[in-house]
Amino acid sequence: MAMKDFIxxxxxxxxxxRVKIVKMLQRGELCVCEIQEALGVAQPTVSKHLKILETxxxxxxxxxxxxxxxxxxxxxxxxxxxxxLGNLKHWLEESPEIREMVERLPDIQRADLxxxxxxxxxxxxxxxx
Length: 129
Known about the structure:
Blueprint: H1 3-12, H2 16-25, E1 30-31, H3 32-39, H4 43-55, E2 59-64, E3 67-72, H5 79-88, H6 96-104, H7 110-116
Antiparallel strand pairs: 1-3, 2-3
């Protein structure tokens, strides 16, 4: 592993919203609109953050029909990813921001978000770049 790989992982986590995304995904797989709702940011911003995290090896995505789902990587391809994700499980759990966001997650229902969205759901694979 090169220093470049290490730096890419560290840079991916320098943004607070990307750290929040990782903390959310520790609880399980989510689609873009669920992440967007939890963060309260625009869909293009969420997609940008997801792309950065995925490029760094921290996330994986899968498509199922029109839906694109994100989950944490298992860290098998990078010791840096494995170490950071392992440590993040224990870090920031007491942070008020993280705690509040995690407590809201069960109330976020993808079906409701997509049904009430004026512009349509941002979860579809076609919107993920």
